[in-house]
Amino acid sequence: MEKELRVRLSSIQPLKKDFFSRAQTRLDRLTKPLGSLGQLEEMAKRYVAIVEEVNPRIQQKFIYTFAGDHGVVAEGVSAYPKEVTPQMVYNFLRKGAAINVLAGHVGAKVVVVDIGVDHEFEPLEGLIIRKVARGTGNLARGPAMSRIQALQAISVGLEMADQARAQKADLVGTGDMGIGNTTPSSAILASMAGLPVSLVTHRGTGIDDATLMRKIQIIEEAIETNKPDPQDPLDVLAKVGGFEIAGIAGLIIGCAAHRIPVVVDGFISTAAAMIAVALNNRIKEYLFASHQSVEVGHQFMWEYIGQKPILNLSMRLGEGTGAALAMFIIEAAVKILNEMATFTEAGVSEIKG
Q1: What is the mean pLDDT of residues 234-253?
Q2: Which is catalytic among the residues 53, 319, 345, 350?
């Protein structure tokens, strides 16, 4: 499995400057002052460079929401019991969650992946069952998973990327569900970026002050117990990560290999993006940072990756909700490129110079 991962990683190529230039030429001919649409123009150029198509169309959009449970919940780090994870999976499948509403609004299909929920689901429409195990181990007492399990979970994400390519996806969003998963996400960030746990750990589902202090203590103990190696992203992922985080990392890697642009959601998804980018720095060019979460560590994640969030709406839900909203903006940027008239077409005088 590690060999397959290395092959995928090695296939990811840097974006070609020629496509940026060609998109810039088109943008500069449109009926507007040069650069007046700001980040929209930057998004359009990068989308063109990723897909290597000067006049791209965004038609097929998918959001993959990976679900998994976490043994560390036994340490009292979350406001909700782990039973909420399978309950929310059923809610996704009934189309009753926020991600269903927002994905429907932007025309994206939600695909739910059981990669490690502590519950046996019957086959259901919209659910892909690829369970690595029924939840991770308690990272405060030992590794969250073995290296083999981490690679298995990444392989699930690679499979989903292959599926997205087969379905001619033009844009893919990431999403997560897993009670307790801000704890491993903070542990990944602290380990990878070398930051104090207290600086990057926040309230997740809305824990009180005492629980927050407990959560910080548990993450510190996890890092001390497991000693994750920041020079080995797979070691960090296995020791203090989560199955859904690994799956999202695999999805990101696979989509980059297939030249499918990826919209990264919130705190948990961005922890996965950190792992992917650490494995191959070129991957950051294929990512769109959907939003800035109110989780205090999220800004440090985006700084580590080197991307600027599109939105800041004080969100902290996950599921893929931020990715769905950002898809709307990215699609608008591409439509500007394709549908706006040039000065010549509109019969409008250009700036003198």
Answers
A1: 98
A2: 319
